[in-house]
Amino acid sequence: MGTIIKRKRKDGTASWLAQIAVRRAGKTVWRENRTFELRSTAAAWIEKREKDLAKPGALENLPIGETRRREVTLSDAIDKYVEDSAKAIGRTKAQVLKSIKEFDIANKLCAQIDSADIVAFAKEKLNTGVSPQTVSNYLGPVAYSCRPQCSFRPLGVRRPMGFCLPMLNADGAGYRSR
Predict the structure, then answer these.
(1) What is the model's pTM?
(2) Measured at the alpha carbon of residue 75, what is the angle toward residues 73 and 80, in degrees to the nearest 5?
(3) Distance (Å, rounded) from C-alpha 98 to C-alpha 108?
(4) How confident is the model at residue 62 (pLDDT cuts 50, 70, 90)?
(5) Which run of H or E residues covers position 122?
(6) Which of 19, 65, 78, 89 is the most interior residue, by most CB within 10 Å?
(7) What secondary structure letter does DSSP report for 164?
């Protein structure tokens, strides 16, 4: 089912954001959105697009130019992130991204990565002898690199006040206080 959201532009005029999400077995398999000048146009687009996507085989037969999340590995997503980066990537981030590609999670399809995989990756990285703070350096790029393609949902935990990134304990669970 589609959603229409009224958006206010910088110049004060209104636009309408039409969003479509197709879910199968509780997971989002396709997401698409477009912005329109009129609400009626947005509603018509949603109706037409949902009808097109409901046809048998429609999701599998999408043109190559459109996003095909099911075929993108985390390693491919990292490569695309590095390639499309607007500004130069620093030495530390480049090393982190290169190192992530050496772990098992990098070969996994982004559409199949979930929170459990990210936690397993964090524990695996902790077992290499690095500190929990270093592991948090690795979690950010993993989540960001595959964000547009991946189907994972962040863990439903609350962050302690004053922290912007979660920090893992030495056993890989919970939060560490300073």
Answers:
(1) 0.47
(2) 95
(3) 16
(4) low
(5) helix 115-126
(6) 78
(7) S
